[in-house]
Design goal:
By secondary structure, the chain is of the alpha+beta class. Helix content is 48%, strand content 23%. It contains two helices and three strands. Strands 2-1-3 form a three-stranded mixed beta sheet. The chain is elongated.
């Protein structure tokens, strides 16, 4: 009976380890896919502190016709201020 319980315990350790390794590898693969699929960036400009932030869409590659056909797009968010604060 003790031998069976040890086997069950080791099986749970193997299952949990495999699950953890799968989550880590899967998240890295998805991260890589999202980074290669970006079409441009969304720049957030907070140069003027009294106003709401301005948003600028900067399309890096592809054309507008191709972009209009897509259902989803991936953008990289950049927090950049172009006006200097005095």
């Amino acid at each position: 009976m003790k031998n069976v319980l040890e086997r069950i315990g080791f099986m749970w350790i193997y299952i949990c380890t495999a699950l953890l390794v799968g989550i880590v590898f899967g998240s890295q693969i998805m991260r890589h896919l999202y980074q290669t699929k970006t079409i441009g960036s969304l720049r957030v400009d907070r140069s003027i502190p009294d106003e709401k932030p301005y948003l600028f869409l900067e399309i890096g590659r592809g054309n507008i016709e191709q972009l209009a056909k897509e259902e989803f797009v991936v953008l990289k968010v950049k927090n950049e201020n172009y006006l200097t604060q005095k």
